[in-house]
Amino acid sequence: MKTLQTKFCNVTFPSPLISVSGIVTSPQANAVLAKEKGIGAITWKSVSLRERKSHPVPVVVPYSSGYINSVGLQNPGLEQAAKDILHIKKQIRVPLIISIVAFQISEFYPLALGVAKTRPDFIEINLSCPNVDDEAGKPFGTDLLMTTLAIQEVKRAAGDIPVIAKLTPNVVDITEFARAAEEAGADAISAINTSGPGLLIDVSKRKPKLGHKIGGISGKAIKPLALRCVYEIAKTVNIPIIGIGGVSTGEDAIEMIMVGATLVGVGSAIFGVGNSIFPKIAQQMQDIMEKHHIRDLKSIKKCID
Ligand code: DHB
């Protein structure tokens, strides 16, 4: 059988398939997911300095081409999250990526420092969050200077823990943000976060389907957008990429690697199928590799001009 083992930032992953942030939320559910065959790493739901409550329900709504969601970055805050991480870390044998989210540049350093004390394998910065210091509340990830400052602050706190910058597709030219992330010291890039935001209407109730009205679009609808972004980023930077967006089959995952991803995130498909999506995609990848005489994943990475 073909091996799916993958090296990313000098860390060995048993598979390139990783869970993305925000899908599996409870610490215990992550410990269960980590035991699934075919999974390469777990990404924790974004941690903020202080506790955040959920937006009004429903917070996730499926539609014909994917999902829209607006959870409101619900999490218990750094103090409780650090306890949860330390507890779960003992139970999992795959790398652990902790996502962090902040609302002001000044929050990134203490937050990353607190998370770094739990010794995760990686810290991922969720840059899609609005900057409350900005009058427009523009997400950090749509402003080049804010992107740079956020990454520099996290790098300063993270010490030897590699830092991943998670980019939003909601910009005109994602390569500018990839370049800024690399220059600011990011060790890797994950792309893409949800697109949009979008809006769905319940005609019978004459109101939006999401409690928060608007929310990020994910799932099958954004796969072509994600592939194009990863393709462009891979042509621009030398740091490795986690390709995320609409992956639910082995073919989707191989496409993501062919445009330049080293790891592949699975998110919405966990909602749709459950944890068994990981052994399913892993098996499909191995079948494709067998059929097309693909020696290993390294040999097909960034094979598209
Ligand atoms: C939320 C967070 C995200 O990073 C995203 O892309 C969409 C929604 C949230 O928690 O609401």
UniProtKB/TrEMBL annotation:
Classification via PROSITE patterns: DHODEHASE_2
Subcellular location: Cytoplasm
Binding site for FMN: S21, K45, S46, N126, K166, I192, G219, G245, G246, G267, S268
Catalytic site positions: C129
Domain of life (superkingdom): Bacteria
CDD domains attached to this UniProt entry: DHOD_1B_like
Enzyme Commission identifier(s): 1.3.-.-
One MF term in the entry's GO annotations: dihydroorotate dehydrogenase activity
Keyword Flavoprotein annotated: yes
Cofactor(s) listed: FMN
Reaction equations catalysed: (S)-dihydroorotate + A = orotate + AH2
Domain Dihydroorotate dehydrogenase catalytic: 4-289
Function comment: Catalyzes the conversion of dihydroorotate to orotate.
HAMAP family, A to Z: DHO_dh_type1
Protein name (database record): Dihydroorotate dehydrogenase
Record organism: Candidatus Gottesmanbacteria bacterium GW2011_GWB1_43_11
Gene name as annotated: pyrD
